Amino acid sequence: MSDGLGFGFGGVLRSALEAFGPLCVGIDPHDFLLQEWGLASSAAGVREFGLRTVEAAAGRAGIVKPQVAFFERFGSAGYAALEEVLAAARAAGIITIADAKRGDIDTSLAGYAEAWLTPGAPLEADAVTVNPFQGVGSLAAAMEYAADNGKGMFVLAATSNPEATEIQTAQVKRPDSTVSVSRAIIDDVSAFNAGRIDAGAAYAGAVGSIGVVLGATVDFAAQGVDVTAPKSPALPVLAPGFGHQGAQATRVRELFGALTPFTIVAESRSLLQAGPAGLAVAIDERAAELRAALV
């Protein structure tokens, strides 16, 4: 997907947010949801689930986020189903974020980037989630590949699962300060984005190609994350944790502060439980609620 201006994923994201607001519909075909939708727990079932979700989201939300694990469990047939879902979303003009959370050394991660972010690839998505446990530096080649191809990445920084707190709040020594792991990841990603916008290419309101994942239920102050100051270029944020996980979508500005303009509000189960007959209405209502909250 192109923004038509050469500004890459950040420009594509800006256009989607302006047109539809920040709602991102998760495509998470849990077994209990497949059962509720009257679908089999199989590759055919997740394919149908994904295609119906894309159909309901088209024209109502600008972003969908398939959870790769729910497709991957069915092997090659599951991946074939995911390829169809991603292609359908692309044909509908919807941004796709493959929630794959890949992480590895630089050369291996570059291979993952080619799999998910190469234009025309079977698994082509607009962005992919990645895990920086081996250091944000290990993501460098993959981040460059994403930016060079007009694609995006979302780097896990402050996730809401309780098991992550000890690691994310651990302290990292920097030349002039000591910061939390979460803060260090955000700083490194922001520095990468700034490095991609040189003086000749800079423009007002630039948006980075690489973003971070910040859970909406995280206590950002306790994690050492500052949401009071805007980033330049603007930092895209993928924010799970709304809906079923407890965060209220109408509080997005209160929760994300200066990062709000490019914060993506991700919901899955709270919408998907409306079922195939009610999903379009549920998406419409949540999207309208979010747009009203951000006026």
TrEMBL record:
Catalytic reaction equation(s): orotidine 5'-phosphate + H(+) = UMP + CO2
Entry keyword set: Decarboxylase, Lyase, Pyrimidine biosynthesis
Family annotation (SMART domains): OMPdecase
Entry keyword annotation includes Endoplasmic reticulum: no
Enzyme class: lyase
A Pfam family: OMPdecase
Pathway annotation: Pyrimidine metabolism; UMP biosynthesis via de novo pathway; UMP from orotate: step 2/2
Enzyme Commission number(s): 4.1.1.23
Gene Ontology MF, one: orotidine-5'-phosphate decarboxylase activity
Keyword Lyase: yes
Residue span, Orotidine 5'-phosphate decarboxylase domain: 22-283
Record-linked NCBIfam families: pyrF_sub2
Protein name in the entry: Orotidine-5'-phosphate decarboxylase
Organism name: Gryllotalpicola reticulitermitis
Phylogenetic classification of the source organism: Bacteria, Bacillati, Actinomycetota, Actinomycetes, Micrococcales
Gene from which the chain derives: pyrF
